[in-house]
């Protein structure tokens, strides 16, 4: 079986020819006895480790400790082999390469990897060793990195299919590689029965397993940083002592001080309010307000948690995520989602609050006119119209007058109460504006929902009463209809069973069925009227609830980063083929005559067995696909509506026909509140300031 070797080579190394006689560091990922992936992280001058075996050992140990556990279980960071620069591809002729003895001599150079360097190589990969050559072709003005030979399980191999893949080293804040969507979740519900070939397919070991390779590519930058930190030749950056660095540090310190002071002010207000409600004198106010202002309390608790914990969110940093760029990107966006949502909410709240403060009188007059028109033109006129002959339907006059008079009296009593409370509307508008300016638009919107719910309490009560009458009337008619059919409902089995009723039961049922059926149109028109009115009010509240959930769930940080740099949101990889032909090791420059620039837009490029005697060489560039703005937003919005389905909507619609009330809340997902925090004000201010300064330093020097 012909062996295949894929070499993942950094573009920064492939584009330079300054280093010669260097060492390659990275990972050997072995999938089978005939397939091997070699992931090169960086190269280093061989002379720097001539007397530094202990330093090299420390580099390998420290790098392996920082790697994710999933990568450590499948591959180990180690010394891969040698890297030489050759000015002519014909330096290694086909005759010399065909002799295995040449690879053990001075032309190979592998004999130098002994002593301290050999001790640094782990046992799991000691059977592998590569020797790569960077060729510069003067006649064609081309440069290629090719495999000179490879020690494969103790055997020197030069005749194998080689695929050299050049990639840009992933860097935090710049780009990385990923095989799938970031928020894609695996299927948890499996079918009951699966074909046998599906199980066989899952048990097969894939020939070109890419997960480990992509993970090692994303960890290559961490390996390079670890090498630079421990290298004796690394000099301290001079920009730390420059004037620009001092100005930048001073600006960040001022910003951290201002934001820390504002956050501490919010923290003190929330803590004083929380302590005030804990007194027994205000306990009844607390209980009553939690029942009347339920939505406001829920959103206030969420906002309080965000204000209290935002410095902790910024400072949260998983040590294992530092080694992998993909994990670090996800962790950073998750940290930034909290404060970005809070900032956008506060900006919207200030815009709405300032608009209400400057136009309070106009808003109050509009509310008065709307309440007057709604009460007189819709509620009272509608009830009077239903007491007559609505749409030409002949209703029961006595029942219509009773239902209409009860409704009119309830509407009149509630309107009179609101007339005496009209003077508080002005202060109510000011309270909504102050809540928006202080805590954001979500708190003011939740307060508006509670105000609308309290202001339309009479409509809710009338709708509840008429629903109770209508539902019992429908249930009674359904039971009497089953009596005439000789059927009986079996609630245990949820089915209709045959049953023999007596003559007296049929007579009583007939006497009850007739008046209930004749009174049903009168009850139905009142039920339809108040159902439409109540549903309209509930729809307005649901719309505000939807806006609150969208404000919380929208990933503002991801949107802003996507607009600036889409490379931070990869979705799958593909290969841009640069060269595909015979191995230049044996065919000199003939392989370049068949050079192509084909673009393969597949997630995985699989090399098939080619029945040729000569080994093949393929050189390609690793490229990424990127997520669109819709693919970024869809998982977050889908999480909001996780509790809503088509079946629930159909059930609600059927419930309305049978006399059940429509739900007044959508039950959308909100950020979970966290436990209350009690720390001194000075410590909280220091925590806020240090979190901003540390995040600025990490963001500035991580690259």
What is the domain total for the residues?
3
Strands, total number: 13
Task: Return the structural class.
Answer: alpha/beta
- Give start-end ranges of low-pLDDT stretches: 87-107, 137-141, 184-192, 232-241, 583-612
**Rg for CA atoms:** 37 Å
CA-CA gap between termini: 44 Å
Query: What general outline do the C-alpha atoms trace?
Result: elongated
Approximately how much helix is present in the residues? 40-55%
Q: Biggest sheet, open or closed, and with what strands and sense?
A: 11 strands, mixed
Rounded average pLDDT: 75
- Proportion of beta-strand residues: 5-15%
**Discrete helix count:** 24
Describe the protein's architecture and organization.
Pfam families: Gpi1. The chain is of the alpha/beta class. The chain contains 24 helices and 13 strands. It has 3 domains: 4-232 and 571-627, no CATH class; 250-357 and 556-565 and 634-644 and 678-701, no CATH class; 359-547, no CATH class. The strands form 2 sheets. It has an 11-stranded mixed beta sheet with strand order 7-6-5-4-2-3-1-8-13-11-12. A two-stranded antiparallel sheet has the order 9-10. Strand 9 and strand 10 form a beta hairpin. It starts with a strand and ends with a helix.
Would you kindly provide a brief summary of this structure?
With 703 residues, the chain is α/β, with parallel strands linked by helices. The chain has 3 domains: 4-232 and 571-627, no CATH class; 250-357 and 556-565 and 634-644 and 678-701, no CATH class; 359-547, no CATH class.
């Amino acid at each position: 079986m012909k062996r295949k070797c894929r070499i993942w080579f950094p573009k920064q190394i492939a584009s330079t020819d300054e280093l010669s006689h260097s060492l390659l560091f990275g990972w050997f990922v072995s999938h089978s006895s005939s397939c091997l992936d070699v992931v090169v992280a960086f190269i280093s001058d061989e002379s720097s480790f001539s007397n530094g075996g202990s330093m090299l050992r420390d580099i390998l140990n420290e790098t392996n400790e920082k790697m994710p556990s999933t990568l450590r279980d499948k591959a180990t960071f180690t010394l891969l082999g040698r890297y030489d620069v050759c000015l002519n591809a014909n330096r290694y002729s086909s005759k010399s390469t065909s002799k295995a003895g040449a690879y053990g001599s001075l032309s190979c150079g592998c004999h130098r990897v002994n002593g301290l360097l050999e001790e640094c190589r782990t046992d799991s990969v000691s059977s592998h060793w590569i020797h790569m050559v960077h060729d510069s072709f003067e006649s064609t003005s081309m440069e290629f990195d090719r495999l000179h030979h490879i020690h494969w399980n103790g055997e020197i191999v030069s005749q194998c299919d080689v695929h050299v893949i050049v990639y840009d080293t992933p860097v935090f804040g710049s780009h990385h590689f990923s095989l799938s969507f970031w928020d894609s979740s695996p299927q948890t519900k499996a079918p009951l029965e699966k074909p046998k070939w599906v199980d066989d397919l899952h048990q097969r070991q894939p020939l070109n397993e890419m997960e480990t390779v992509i993970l090692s590519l994303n960890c290559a930058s961490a390996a390079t940083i670890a090498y630079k930190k421990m290298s004796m030749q690394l000099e301290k950056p001079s920009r730390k002592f420059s004037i620009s660095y001092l100005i930048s540090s001073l600006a960040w310190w001022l910003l951290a001080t201002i934001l820390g002071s504002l956050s501490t002010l919010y923290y003190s207000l929330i803590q004083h309010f929380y302590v005030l409600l804990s007194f027994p004198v205000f306990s009844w106010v607390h209980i009553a307000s939690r029942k009347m202002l339920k939505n406001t309390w829920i959103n206030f608790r969420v906002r309080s948690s965000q204000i209290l914990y935002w410095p902790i969110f910024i400072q949260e940093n998983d040590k294992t995520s530092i080694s992998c760029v993909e994990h670090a990107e996800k962790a950073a966006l998750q940290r930034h989602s909290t404060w970005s949502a809070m900032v956008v909410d506060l900006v919207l709240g200030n815009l709405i609050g300032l608009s209400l403060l400057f136009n309070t009188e106009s808003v109050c007059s509009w509310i008065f006119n709307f309440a007057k028109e709604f009460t007189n033109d819709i509620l009272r006129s509608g009830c009077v119209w239903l007491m007559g002959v609505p749409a030409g339907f002949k209703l029961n006059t006595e029942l219509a007058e009773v239902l209409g008079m009860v409704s009119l009296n309830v509407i009149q009593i509630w309107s009179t109460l609101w007339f005496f409370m009209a003077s508080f509307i002005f202060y109510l508008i000011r309270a909504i504006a102050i809540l928006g300016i202080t805590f954001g638009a979500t708190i003011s919107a939740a307060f508006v929902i509670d105000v609308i719910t309290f202001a339309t309490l009479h409509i809710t009560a009338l709708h509840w009463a008429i629903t109770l009458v209508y539902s019992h009337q429908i249930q009674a008619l359904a039971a009497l209809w089953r009596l005439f059919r000789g059927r009986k409902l079996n609630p245990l089995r949820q089915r209709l069973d045959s049953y023999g009723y007596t003559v007296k039961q049929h007579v009583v049922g007939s006497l009850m069925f007739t008046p209930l059926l004749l009174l049903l149109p009168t009850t139905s028109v009142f039920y339809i009227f108040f159902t439409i009115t109540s549903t309209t009010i509930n729809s307005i509240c649901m719309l505000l609830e939807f806006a609150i959930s969208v404000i919380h769930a929208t990933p503002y940080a991801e949107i802003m980063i996507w607009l600036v740099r889409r490379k931070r949101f990869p979705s799958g990889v593909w290969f841009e083929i640069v060269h595909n032909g015979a191995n230049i090791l044996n065919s000199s420059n003939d392989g370049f005559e068949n050079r192509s620039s084909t673009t393969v837009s597949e997630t995985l490029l699989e090399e098939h067995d080619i029945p040729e005697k000569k080994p093949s060489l393929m050189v390609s560039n690793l490229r990424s696909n990127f997520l669109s703005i819709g693919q970024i937003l869809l998982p977050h919005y889908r999480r909001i509506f996780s509790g809503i389905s088509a079946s629930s909507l159909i059930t609600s619609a059927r419930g309305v026909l049978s006399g059940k009330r429509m739900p007044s809340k959508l039950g959308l997902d909100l950020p979970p509140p966290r436990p209350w925090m009690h720390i001194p004000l000075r410590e909280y201010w220091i925590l806020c300031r240090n979190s901003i300064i540390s995040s600025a330093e990490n963001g500035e020097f991580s690259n």
